[in-house]
Amino acid sequence: MLQMFKWKTGEFSWVDFTIDVLRILIVLAIVVGSWNTLSEGRISFAQWVNLFIAGLSQGSIYALIALGYTLVYGILLMINFAHGEVFMAGAFSTVFLAEALNRTGFLNQSPVLAILLMILFAGLVSMTVAILLERIAYRPLRGSPRLVPLITAIGASFFLQYTFRGLYGSGFKAYPQVKILQGVFQVGSINIPKVQIFVFISALVLMFALYWLVERSRIGKAMRAVSENKEVARLMGIDIDWVILFTFGVGGFLAGSAGVINGMFRPQGVNFFMGFIPGIKAFTAAVLGGIGNIPGAMLGGLFLGVIEAIGPNLVLAGLGIPGANQLKDVIAFTMLVLVLIFRPQGILGERLSEKKA
Amino acid sequence: MKRLFLVFTLFGLLLTFGAPALADAHCMDALGCVEVGPDDPIVIGAMLSVSGATSFYGEDSRGGVELAILGRDGMLLGRDIEFVVEDSLCSAEGGQAAAQRMAADESIVGIIGTTCSGAAQGALPIISEAGMLMISPSNTSPSLTNDDRDAGGTYLPGYFRTAHNDLFQGALGARFAVEVLKTGSLATIHDGDPYTEGLAVVMANTFAGLNGEVVFQGAVSKGDTDMSAILTEIAASGPDIVYFPVFVPESEFIASQLVNTPGLEEALMMTADGSFSATFAQNTGDAAVGIYMTGPHVSGDAYDAFIATWKEEIDEAGPPSGFHAHAYDGANLLMDAVEAVAEEMDDGTLVIGRQALRDALSSVEAYDGLTGSLTCQASSPYAGDCATGDALAVFSITEAEVAEGNWPPPIVWTPSMASGG
């Protein structure tokens, strides 16, 4: 404890003091807010559980997108801000396939096959977009100052948004409902929507597949090698350009599948702009978990989803803040700021100085 | 040296006072004039939301203006009409930026826009200060035509709109909820936009005034997809009806998640013209059946002809939202005003007084537009309001809208039914 409050041990510094005060205030706010809400008892236990599970589902979608950020960062030390648009590309393109499958009745006759087909299609579309992005926008700039690819990514993000608007128009579309995913599972007094179980499980499967790919397969070994040290990897005979392209492709595939899973979970709101906010949230999740760290991105996504779902009602409403639900994003981004203040390397992240910063 | 100074001073004086006097020789207008040379086109500006998530509203209005110009074969007073569109997004900052670009172009006679009330609040101070005028086809926030600053009014001279004031729309919704649906308790959700917030407040006040109980007033933010947190909170208050006058797709998320929220299965739902989009019912799915919606209601032979032209000239699918007719009327009001005010000089130059244009619009009375009879009012809280609120209705979404894509949904109530008892 004494070590935490450095100023007590004699080496007084205003910076440490302010950060400690901030820490105490935040903990106090969380405790007081939660205490008020829980003692008021407006929201029942079952409702809290429902919120938690909805948060987990939302979080697993953030996590799938966050993996794309983290993979690319791990290998190139760059933030691919166009990754939200890669997600949009798959989700937006597949909505047409989903409509067609629904019209022919295939979607409800053999839903498993249809959903697999959609995930595959969305994954391939997003993968293509991500690969083209790397090849056309990022590769020519490799080796330039780090700000350059960052700005390019923002430009590429606008380019993709308005290209897709040109392709599919500016209206909103929605995924059709899959009958097998409607309804709830009853566990005691708690009703869990089936679709949320589907989202969580399919996201877990994809994450495990990725983990296996990176840790156990040959190409995964190459990815880790390139991430460790590009020059030495090249000397070992690894085709770096190909590995980087592959990494973008994998990130793209995950984002595209996240698009379809998201479409099952929250069917509405499919348009050319839909990638923006999930993109920012997933980036937040990646930083929360420790950017460049794969389990970190998964954990960060889940954590962010749950905090967003529970935070407004638990903490803000308890503190008597009006319009608490409007401040959901504030909670998400406050978490980001808090992590950057208290643990800059993220929950599971390694210190940047250990890598080449 | 002294003489040189004198020469410069005289020259400076001449530039300061003489030059404008020479240029404005024909202009007697208090706010200055637009001068259109003999071979120059007449320029009409527009500040619309043509990018971002609400761009389909902007495209809807842009089509309306284009058809109005086309209706005159692209000519006004023997000149070509040039149509300049700036993107005002759906935010105060966007409106401000678009207005600055508009104000910098002195050849613009008048502006159609903005799309969103939020953008108008950023744009109006600049447009008003520049002596220009703007006619909005889709701003409905009550604050824009209210000049009482203490009550949050933001009206400034030069503002007109052909869209209905939400004082009409919110009251219509509240009266329908109380008098027809016989609901006793209300929850409202807005998204922080002045338009949605204004509508939620008008609804809540009118509802309370009719002896209803307002049990929850909350907000989400634009871009939210997960509404479970606020819906859980609303379920704890147990309202008879939930009113969410927000835009698509947030309204679609709210509706589809509300029916699955424990405790809200029986609650009625009502939304407003921010969700008046041809795809709302299909996107929301089965949850949309039974939702009430207040929104623009335009009908008649002239309107049918307008839609036919739209399908021929702009898009097979028809207009993407419900404010194209308002934009059409707005553009025609502007062009009529220009025709009435413009004076042709001997050298062929057209001189159009800016104050005279504003006066011409203010004096519009019983204009027979697509959206009904338009009379522009002068006094707060309806200053600049040209629509009377008659072109509104309560719609109810049925199976046909969800399954077959029928739009607009059947009308269940109109203001005339309201006044009739």
Share in helix of chain B: 40-55%
What's the rounded overall pLDDT mean of chain B?
89
Q: Into which percentage range does the β-strand content of chain B fall?
A: 15-25%
Beta-strand proportion of chain A = under 5%
Largest interface: A-B, 41 and 40 residues
Task: Characterize the biggest β-sheet of chain A.
Answer: 2 strands, antiparallel
| Broad shape of chain A | globular
Gyration radius of chain B, to the nearest Å?
24 Å
What oligomeric state do these chains adopt? Answer: heterodimer
Radius of gyration of chain A: 22 Å
What is the strand arrangement across the widest sheet of chain B? 9-8-10-11-12-17-18
List the helices and strands of chain A in order: HHHHHHEEHHHHHHH
Counting structural domains of chain B, the number is 2
Number of strands of chain A: 2
Topology, pairings included?
The complex is a heterodimer of chains A (357) and B (421).
Chain A: H1 14-40, H2 45-76, H3 83-104, H4 106-109, H5 111-138, H6 147-168, E1 184-187, E2 190-193, H7 194-216, H8 218-228, H9 230-235, H10 240-265, H11 276-289, H12 294-316, H13 328-342
Antiparallel strand pairs in A: 1-2
Helix pairs in contact in A: 1-12, 2-7, 2-10, 2-11, 2-12, 3-5, 3-6, 3-10, 3-11, 5-10, 7-8, 7-10, 8-10, 11-12, 11-13, 12-13
Chain B: H1 2-23, E1 33-36, E2 42-48, H2 55-70, E3 75-76, E4 79-87, H3 92-103, E5 108-113, H4 117-129, E6 134-136, E7 159-161, H5 166-180, E8 185-190, H6 194-209, E9 213-219, H7 228-237, E10 241-243, H8 250-258, E11 268-271, H9 280-284, E12 292-296, H10 301-313, H11 324-341, E13 343-344, E14 350-353, H12 354-362, E15 367-369, E16 372-374, E17 392-396, H13 399-404, E18 411-413, H14 415-419
Parallel strand pairs in B: 2-4, 2-5, 5-6, 6-7, 8-9, 8-10, 10-11, 11-12
Antiparallel strand pairs in B: 1-14, 3-4, 12-17, 13-14, 15-16, 17-18
Helix pairs in contact in B: 2-11, 3-4, 5-6, 11-12
